Amino acid sequence: MPLKKVDLVTAVGHIKQVCGENRAIQDRLPFFFLVGSGLSYPPVPLAAKIEESCKVLSREQKRTTAPAGKRAIDTYSHWFDHAYPHPIERQRYLRSLIEGKSISHANFRLAHLLLDKRVANLVVTTNFDDFLSRALNLFGKPHIVCDHPRTVERINPEADDVQIVHVHGSYWFYDCCNLVGEIEERSRSSAENSFTMASLLDTILARRSPLVVGYGGWEGDVVMCALKRRLQNRLPYNLYWFCYRDCEAEALPEFLREHPNVYFVVADDPTGRDDALKTPAAVSAAAPAGDPATPEAAYEETPDVLPAQRVFDELIRAFDLPAPELTKDPLSYFATYLRQSLPQQDGLSAEVDIYSLGSVIERIEGARGRAQVKGAETRMERIRDYLRRSQYRDAIRLGAEMASTKLRPGESRDLLRTMLTAAWRLDDNSAEEIQGYDLVIRLGDAVPKPDAFVRERVAMAMVNKGLALAGANRHHEAIETFKAAVQRFGRERDLFFRQQSAEALFNRAYSLSAMGRHRQAVDAYQSLIRRLNHAREVELQELTAMAMLNQGCEWGELRNPEEELKAYGAVVKRFSRADDPDVQIQVGRAFYNWGVTLDSLNRPKSAAKAYQALIDRFELSRNRELRDLVDSARANLAQPEPEGAGPGAE
């Protein structure tokens, strides 16, 4: 049975329809959220990064025994146990990764969805962090937390309360589950105790279907075991599995892939760009880092991926959820919160208020009154409200109206920031997205003495405008935009501007390739490689490796296999010892393309060496893309030699 794949808008339409029907017929909610580490990245590193860190520490401790299994859960567990053999050490390490970190935007968005409870009021998570709970606390939403099998009786799936279940525990306690044995133990039912994580999940799944976001599906954990049991039968409501990358659906177990009620939600790439190997790839847009309502810049967002925040954005937009009270009127929110917390005096003297909270409330309300006199319902506040509710197109429309009027001191800076956020989050290569970037550039140019804040956002707007133009197949305009960005910021020595200029140069070369001007693209990539020749920063090294790889692809388009092979070999030679996972992906691609090119030249022995080198180098990698490359290399090695190949073929 072929996989049932749908795009995000279609899936959300399905979800909204059944949620509306259920509210009209009965109070029971049809869904719950099942979330994983994708929600907490990048404040907390993903499992692959944790595994690499543990592997380094293990080697320093001379603990170099290879993992017994090859599953992701086996290698992760092996190196975690080798690095931190004591449970309390593992808990302390996790605490160091989580405690004091900022709440991820995806967790804020999920908390926003839970406030209304129209989609779901229950979250099952494999995460150890407390980001979601902290976000709910900030929004003033009481909730119930279960983080141990002994506390599962706290959870009532039929209750109206917001509830969070940490199936593997939390970072607060040393008995959280990290190792494969611990994870598998938690997945088992108990003959002596009816209150287990496995039994709780069975109860939840009996009536509801999960909306799976940011979870990769580790074979053998309590969640996957419960899903396997439940999917022996049909479901009353479809299960929607939101895949960060399209290929992730193919890697999931057969019981998920072949079930008639399981839908895989994948990104709908509006550019139609083919990111297959031996095809040049564009550099993804940079996020406005640090701005509210945007994902962190480190989290890759391109049209062909589906991050958690984009999923939650679409749900918030489709259900037209109001903004949280904290964001609409923060002074009133805090005054009300304090008033509810203040001990009731019941005729006693004011001395009962030993912390003088009554005075604090009066000061907050006084400040609120002064703000209202100035006009609380400003244009900027309306724009911010659109952002909170994921109404990015409306935010840009109102921002354009506001920019055409005289702006008060401070408004220009706020408008610049919010327009960049709205355009970046819109991310559909539309006229509105491009208009948003144009507004940022125009507002920045109007500042007499722009500081770093303004100049950084203008640089991001120019690069992202070029990417949006390229995505809309307006490559001539994109090239001019990238050129203008380099002319404006190319001489800056600060890393941020060097990276923006390098991305502009890279994507200019990509647009030249998309227009069929492959010889010019080769030269453009070579110019960038020379520019970054001595760069030591990881971000710039990744761009260098990508430029070298894409240059090889361009030589392939020009039917010059010798130069193509030379380019791939240069990537391997220069970066094979690099530690950064993103750089290593380029090395893996170079090995694979090297083999494919040699195969096309009827040089099977040399191709086999390239494929085998890829397998030897990356077969134990935790990175999904590198594992896919290894699988493809093995498949190519297993193919019969073409006619005419053999001992004398090379």
What's the gist of this structure?
This protein is mainly α. It is built from 28 helices and eight strands.
Structural class: mainly alpha
Strands, count: 8
> Share of helix among residues?
55-70%
Q: How far from one another are the termini?
A: 42 Å
- CATH hierarchy, class of the domain at 5-44 and 101-273 and 305-319: Alpha Beta
Helical stretch tally: 28
For the biggest sheet, the summary is: 8 strands, parallel
Question: Could you characterize what this model shows?
Answer:
There is one protein chain. The protein is mainly alpha-helical and 650 residues long. Among the domains are: 228 residues, 3-Layer(aba) Sandwich (Rossmann fold), CATH 3.40.50.1220; 53 residues, no CATH class; 39 residues; 100 residues, Serine Threonine Protein Phosphatase 5, Tetratricopeptide repeat, CATH 1.25.40. It contains 28 helices and eight strands. The protein has an eight-stranded parallel β-sheet. The longest helix has 20 residues. The chain is globular. The C terminus is likely disordered.
In terms of topology, how is this protein built?
Blueprint: E1 5-7, H1 8-25, E2 31-35, H2 47-60, H3 72-83, H4 87-98, H5 105-116, E3 122-125, H6 131-138, E4 143-146, E5 162-166, H7 180-186, H8 197-207, E6 209-213, H9 222-230, E7 239-242, H10 247-251, H11 254-257, E8 262-266, H12 308-319, H13 325-328, H14 330-341, H15 357-374, H16 379-388, H17 392-403, H18 411-426, H19 431-445, H20 452-471, H21 475-489, H22 495-514, H23 518-531, H24 538-557, H25 561-575, H26 581-600, H27 604-618, H28 624-638
Parallel strand pairs: 1-8, 2-3, 2-6, 3-5, 4-5, 6-7, 7-8
Helix pairs in contact: 1-12, 2-3, 5-6, 5-12, 8-9, 14-15, 16-17, 16-18, 17-18, 17-19, 18-19, 18-20, 19-20, 20-21, 20-22, 21-22, 22-23, 22-24, 23-24, 24-25, 24-26, 25-26, 26-27, 26-28, 27-28
